[in-house]
Amino acid sequence: MINAERSLAYFGYTLISAFRLEGSHLFGFQKSFELFNHQQSYYYLLPAMDLPEFVAPGKQYSVMHTNLSQFFSSSNLNNQFTFQYDFGDNWKISLNVESIETKEIMLHDIPRVTGGSGYGLIEDIGGNSGLHEYIEAFASGDLDHYYQIFGNQLPHLRPFSLPIANEKLKPEISILKRQYEDNE
User: Fold this and answer.
1) Whether 33 and 65 share a structural domain
2) Which tens digit of pLDDT belongs to each residue from 58-86?
3) 58-81 burial by CB neighbour count: b if 16+ within 10 A, else e?
């Protein structure tokens, strides 16, 4: 749950925190829909980059200057979109907004994680396939390869905990906001 007046950047920081990432990579959102039998995609990136080989002119926007209510306006046709983090590991998280509501709620109660499972994501592990390989190696105890990569600082596999996720969410968002925006 998040305030719709927040920027897409803030929403990105919220997702980075919720998935237990460190915020050491670029991120963006992709919103796609079909119009007259042609797939249309719009990209919202941090930092705003000129990527003519990937994104057509006029279809790229800044996450800093777009808020959630603009992103989910009725003209956008649907509320399915992709959050992409670390264009090397290429983490892609498909998201679907279940509802957009106006509610009386205390601002200190949001953003809030409402559910989750699994272990979160691990920075620089090699994306989805690398994470699965690490989980298998961790379960079998065959971690020599990972000790060579990470030394004695092996990434932790901590099961999702809703209370801990919400306890850490706001402080981590503040850190991520400073981290990204002071470098913008």
Assistant:
1) yes
2) 577 788 888 888 887 755 556 778 999 99
3) eebbbbbebbbebbbeeeeeeeeb
